[in-house]
Design brief:
Elements (H helix, E strand, L loop, with lengths): L10 H14 L8 E2 L1 H8 L3 H14 L2 E4 L3 E4 L4 H25 L2 H14 L6 H20 L4 H20 L9 H16 L3 H26 L1
Antiparallel strand pairs: 1-3, 2-3
Amino acid sequence: MELVKLQRQRAVDAVYEALREGILGHLFKPGERLHVDELSVKLGVSLTPVRNAIQQLAAEGLVEIQPRSGTFVAKLSVQDIEETFEIRCALECLAAEKATDSMEPAELDRLRALLLSLNRPIHTAEDRKAHEQANTEFHRILIRASRNRRLEDMYEGLNAHLKIARIHGSEQSWRSRLDEEQAEHRQIVAALEIRDVDLVVSTLRKHIYRAKDALVASVLQAE
C-alpha cells in the first residue's frame, strides 16, 4: 500500500480519507510522526488540505498533535483499550437487544454466510485480511440491524481506535483464539435465530470481553 497523488478537485475531502485509510491500513504505524510537507508532496496537494485533514483526524483521536514536537499517529494504552471495549460492549449489546426483534431474514442469511467465511482456514496474509473483513461485517450487521444511526456512527468511531490497538499489539497468538472465536459467532447466530434476546446479549458480551482480554495481553506482550 502507498499514497498516490490526488486530483485537485477532490483534494479537500480526499486527503482526510487517504490519511485515515493509511493509518487504519498499516501504512502509518502507531506512534509514527506525520510530516505535513512530505504528505503534501506525496499526495500532490498544498499544505492547507493536509493540515485540515490532520485536525479532523486529531478530533477523531487517530492522531495526536503535540506542541513543539509534531503530529503522531495515536497509540492506545491498556487503559484506553479497556475503556474503549467497555463502550463498545454497551453499544453492541444495546444494538443486539434491538436487532433480535428487528433483524430481517436477509440479514440472518448474511450472518450464516459469514460463519462459513470465518471458518475457512487461514494460511496467507490475504486469507487473514479476508477473515478480518468478514469479522468486521459480522458485527456491523448487528449494529445496522438496531436501526439506530447515531449508535452506528458512535460504533464506527470506536472501531477506528480498536484497529490502531490491533496494529500496535503483538499478533503471535491470534491463531490459538480462532476456534473460540468461531464457536462464539455460531452461538450468537443461533441465539438470534430463536429470537432469545437475553441469550444474544450474554453471548455477545462474553465474546467482546474475551476479545478485549486477548487484545490487552497482545499489547502488553508487544511493549
